[in-house]
């Protein structure tokens, strides 16, 4: 099985830009996407998932939700990982 494509939420992109990027990935590259938000971008990751769900309805399912922390630049930073799978 292929590894899911990973999308990291960034401050510079809008929620809608992320939604369009994920839809494009699901249509062309992969059946699964890992949406990962770090620190203050955790709520934006949830907003992105909700916008995807509103747009695609039953076309996607939330396979897994995981939380944790990683060391980045000698700091421990929290993350939220949402695994989204295409269901059509």
- Number of helices in the DSSP assignment: 2
User: Structural class of the secondary elements?
Assistant: alpha+beta
Can you list the strand order of the major beta sheet? 1-2-4-3
User: What is the β-strand count?
Assistant: 4
Description:
With 88 residues, the chain is α+β, with helices and mostly antiparallel strands. It has a single domain, classed as 2-Layer Sandwich (Translation Initiation Factor IF3). Helix content is 33%, strand content 41%. It has two helices and four strands; from the N terminus they run βαβαββ. The chain has helices spanning 15-28, 42-56, and strands at 5-8, 32-38, 60-72, 75-86. A four-stranded mixed beta sheet has the order 1-2-4-3, covered by helices on one side. Helix 1 packs across helix 2 (42-56).
Brief rundown of the structure:
By secondary structure, the chain is α+β, with helices and mostly antiparallel strands. The chain has helices at 15-28, 42-56, and strands at 5-8, 32-38, 60-72, 75-86.
List its traits:
single chain, 88 residues, alpha+beta, Translation Initiation Factor IF3, four-stranded mixed beta sheet, 2 helices, 4 strands
What's the helix and strand layout?
Elements lengths: L4 E4 L6 H14 L3 E7 L3 H15 L3 E13 L2 E12 L2
Parallel strand pairs: 1-2
Antiparallel strand pairs: 2-4, 3-4
Helix pairs in contact: 1-2
